[in-house]
Amino acid sequence: MSEITSLEPRLVWEQFDAITRVPRPSKKEGKIIDFLVDFSKKHHIEYKKDAIGNVVMRKPATPGMEERAAVILQSHMDMVCEKNSDVEFDFDNDPIRTRIDGEWVRAEGTTLGADCGIGMAAALAVMLDETVEHGPVEALFTVDEETGLTGAFELGEGMLTGKYLVNLDSEDEGEIFIGCAGGIDTIATFHYTMEPSPKNYTFFRVDVSDLQGGHSGDDIDKGRANSNKLLARFLWLAARQTEMRLVYLDGGNLRNAIPREAFAVFGVPSRDAKRLRELFEEYVRGVGQEFAPVEKSMEITLSEMPEPDTVIDADAQRYLLYALCGLPNGVLAMSPTMPGMVETSTNLASVKFVGDRLIEITTSQRSSIESARDAAAASVESVLLLGGGDVTHSDGYPGWAPDPESHLLAVTIEAYEKLFGNKPLVRSIHAGLECGLFLRKYPWLEMVSFGPTLRGVHSPDERLEIASVDKFWKLLTETLKMLE
Description:
Layout lengths: L9 H11 L9 H13 L3 E4 L5 E5 L11 E6 L21 E4 L2 E4 L6 H15 L8 E6 L7 H4 L10 E4 L7 E6 L1 E10 L2 E3 L4 E9 L4 E2 L11 H15 L3 E7 L5 E2 L3 E8 L3 H19 L7 E7 L4 E3 L1 H13 L3 E5 L7 E13 L3 E10 L2 H17 L3 E4 L13 H14 L4 E5 L5 H7 L4 E4 L4 E2 L7 E3 H17 L2
Parallel strand pairs: 3-6, 3-7, 7-23, 8-22
Antiparallel strand pairs: 1-2, 2-6, 4-5, 5-25, 9-20, 9-21, 10-17, 11-15, 11-16, 12-14, 13-15, 18-19, 19-20, 24-25
Helix pairs in contact: 1-3, 5-6, 5-7, 7-8, 9-11
């Protein structure tokens, strides 16, 4: 057990500590599924597992509350697996190394997995704590939320019986969410051939690193730099002012994360090497000034490299750079109905050399309005097609339309005011939640989402505010007690 198990509420932190010790990458949830099943058996809790791997546990009502409608506590099992490039870590096998850092809990050089591990921990604590008063409770743990919402899409028949659903996957204590954005991924592949490296060239590697990154929905409006866009901008300049030849590039990892790192290897005629260095210095000064208020630790470096045997063919290079520079990125529209909320956005998530002579570009579009989401995807697709890419889309997922008249919402607000003496903020979130998919199968559900305060989600800077966990737990248990 780590030092975090001494924190309060102890039962919640003990469950979270246990969860951090179980590897649970998206689409590799076998170990955490086994953990949940073993937990149910050990504590004699009724459970059910569907074909895709979702697990639901059921706890009877507190005596005298049997006639109340059942409440579903929902969280997802998988976590985003990101680490700093200088950290040795195997997400398939290693436990997360947690530590207390002042008012926060962090991990050592990796994502913490509090998204949504702390929601899982709270649900498990409810299953164990006999002092919590409640009607019938179901705890639903879904697979693969982070990379496809597969668990929510393929939720088995008869898994849920509740009328109310509390999603435990939010990241701002003091805020209650009653809606979320829908999303879709747009992916392109570019074909290339290799040519012999030209003679009398000097080769370089340019690295963009130490950006903040973050969640491509919740953090998209914070003005953070995208490493893929920064890299593409410099390569575009180099290609415009020299006879630059590209060898390789790589940037970003996950479709739902703002990329933090990217690099490329390229060459220019040796006669232009001095000009290239000058161009690089000008570029670094410019983007440094551009992102100074936000990216305090940004590093962009240039180093000379040995001559490679081959380079990418000139046509493929040209159209790839056209596409990367032309792709929109960031906030596309703010909501006219909910001030301060992003309505539509897009994220250039990753650029990878894959397979045989293929480069894959992954982007994601989000919007609270389905037609705007689809229009953003069409815009991205058009740029990729003009660049010569072969384009596909994911199935996409629906948003969750707010219901401000919900009885569950009214009770949650009342519980918050009773506990803390002030009103919570009620809003919709730009990030994707599974709630819209649950409504497809259970259209009668009333839903809210709340959680403790998380920052740096989907990056190695992920951290969980200790004090907010206690408030999160109190709000959850008081809402269960008051909901009739």
